[in-house]
Amino acid sequence: MKFSFVVVAAALSVAATAAPAPSADRMFSADRVRAHVTFLADDLLEGRGTGSRGHEIAARYVAAMMASYGLVPGARDGGWFQRVTLQEQGIAASGARLTVTGPAGSASFVHGVDIVANPSAIDAATDIAAPLVFAGYGIDAPAKGFDDYAGLDVRGKIVVVLASIPQGPPDEVIAHLQTQKAQMAAAHGAIGVIIVPTPQSTKLRPWSVQIGYAATPRMTWVAANGSANVPAPAIKATMTLDDKAAAALFAGAPQDFAAVQAAAAVAGAHPKGFALVTAARFTAAATRRTLTSPEVIGMIPGSDPVLRGEFVVLMAHVDHLGIRAENAGDKIYNGALDNAAGVAVMLEVARAFAGDARKPKRSLLFVANTAEEKGLLGAEAFANDPSVPIGSIVSVVDLDQPLLLYNFTDVIAFGADHSTLGNMVARAVAKAGVKLAPDPMPEETIFVRSDHYTFVKRGVPALLLATGYANGGEAAWKHYLANDYHKPTDDLSLPIDWQAGAKYARVNYLITREIADAPQRPRWFTGDYFGATFAPDAPKVMRH
Fold it and tell me: What distance in Å separates the CA atoms of residue 358 and residue 419, rounded to the nearest whole number?
């Protein structure tokens, strides 16, 4: 072994058991799920913040459990841990400032008051000055009805774009496109991006919430060559503005900011861009530190001599939000459901497969991710440089924040309807007496917001599984999201239904077994945007 088991000896005595009988799929234990969550969500782990001692302890616990069940190490170097180098950057004490100059003179806006600036991951100091151009929502996708850069010259300029996406029916493709705004701006020659609010974005995320993140450092992962991963390095500055600062950008323009906001408030509207008569200068200094944090990877080799070279990945993120000293009361974000519960379920599935007399045909990788709460960074780094060839990964099932507060009778497989994974999941969950339900909250566009999405962008059919809205689920979800999500109250005081945890583990076992034993790997549907974009040469099948 490449690490000491001292820190988890007590936990092993609680959770480890003898090898299960061949009927492992019927022997999932509520007590084991509870033991895992109890350890991982304990105050002593201090919220498992990325790069923290608490997260390191949690990672060693997960590896110790995998070893006790009989998994083999699955990291690139033959160990349990595949460390991710991360760079953390913040705004220096000297601050960041945006100065806008127009017909009426100049006005300055300060980071943490009127603007929230993103510190550069490349430059220690930023000082750019350029004319401003309004580019609607900043999306360049004519096939989806967005041609926001048509007729605009943004070369060497700073683009001003509306937050989020237009009001209208939820659309996962458009949700994906909004994550690409910086890359689209860079492709047209811009050097900076300023995001201004819409009535809808303000309703969903008031400025009082956004400004709360001004002091929070950002992170990115670092490649093997030492370069920080920056999707759009030509963009030297990005920032979000409040209404007051946004209005200054539009001074003297053909439309003022109030008119642009009114246009954006119309469902389905795509406000057209135009050159502004103002210019802006942005200055900032960044602080920076480098740290590492582990991905934990265990493997169960497949039994089929041909298919064992393919892998089904079951993953869950171990990290949470750590400690926030500024809190008046409870300062520890324990993350019992987000995502100690997901890790617990993954471990229970790993235990079942390891003890099952009938091993899966394909090999299984169990991956405990780091830095999900920092922007899916651990999964991004792993997907960029996996311990097995990316082409050998046939699918990914992500377990993030299972809501184990009620006896669920349905599950949601976010993203499964883009490929044959949907059919596989439906067959599998039916064996557990559970239904596969459609996405009940499509406006949240959850498909692009968790670790599985990093694999979708590399052409791998992937999904995020969640407990559904039936049998009291809707009320439980709405209460949790309003009162406990990303709050210190997501802890062991919640009325967690541990039997639901065991049931959820069995559901995930059956899903993983279905994929691993299928004669054909999951395939994207013909004409699906994600399959066509990220796996253009992969075999496709018609949707039925």
Answer: 27
